[in-house]
Amino acid sequence: MSEEEKDEYDEELDDENFTDLDEVKDSLQELEIGSEEDESLNMDDFSPEDIDGEKEAIQMSREWYKRIEIDLWKTQMHTATMGIRQQDQYRAQSRQFTASMEVKGDITFFGYSPEDLTKPLKERKREKKILEYKEVLGINKSFWDPSDENSIIVKQAQKLSQDYDPDKYAKLLRRLVIKTFSELKRDKKKKGHAGRWRGTLEESIINSTNGMMGENRGKARPFFFINLPGYNYRVGLMRTHTIIGDRYMFTIPNPKTGELTTFRIKGRRFTPGKDFFVYNSETNQRVAEIDDRKLNIGGKITIRFRGEKEFEELNRSVVFRRILILFGILIKFLDDLDTKYKHIYKALKKKGKYLKLIRKAEKKEDQAKIDAVKMKYEKIQKECKMIKSVVVTNSELTLHYNPRRIRT
């Protein structure tokens, strides 16, 4: 081998061992899709049976709830925890209940009696009236549980094990998908529509990253899409900029008139849990409140609605009510999401420091320094203290398909 060929060979080895960490392929991702993820790639978010099931929800809208309680179970020892057979029954009722769904709690509705609704607010009876109708809530553990070896995020992390520690990287790939379903116990012949899908809240990592990078200090700005059966529009729920405290916003379009109504969910300060007031942003009227019982063993959230006559139409709105239910469930996951996005922001910013050191060494043509910098930052990257870029799977990408695109 000539000296010239030897030098070229050594350069190839250097390139192989010390690949520039800032290299990003500008080609479309071709990701292998697991069976669980494949189930979530349906373009239509609801099917005919879900719309049929929503007839009952429309019937329910005649109720005026004074409060709704969400109970997230602490352990799988809960008496209502489902077995495999029950999970199969849920899957048979709605395709929204995928193989990776795990039931994590239930939702109880408290309503006024018909007699109470005819009386002024102060004259209504205060004793509890628990409706027979209940729901269960679940999360897609394949997108959320980094300890599950069969989960999509773990498999995706293992594909990139050459660059990152899979155990640490899987935590950065987590994506929250929450769904609610009518309780399976319901006798279909008498009550109807047991185990039907009632709503989905799905984290958008793309929009969340966009919001986070727009902040000077990289504060977490999670963004979520909310889909409801029979409602043809996705509702965006996002955390917005505040100097102190938390604030989330969502806007509901009226399908008949096109009119928009925007609501503000504002965090309350100096409370034990994460408590919120819900306001109509246009009138600044407080329309509901969400109470997080911090000291509860598992996790209870109570939603209370204003009972005055002027709020009757809003309180009977299935869309408004379900958005608040999904947000109430989300509260228990906000700390985990904040931790994830803060880590991602710091890890992305670390790449800028790496590039600065590399360019400085290259300017001096100091190969030893270049190699030392690469070796140091390869170790940092392995520990996920630096990442090349945020990575999403196909289930996230399908959230952002252009519905008006040309399809072949």
TrEMBL record:
Residues 1-21, 33-50 have a biased composition (Acidic residues). Residues 1-26, 31-50 are annotated as: Disordered. It comes from the Archaea. This is Uncharacterized protein.
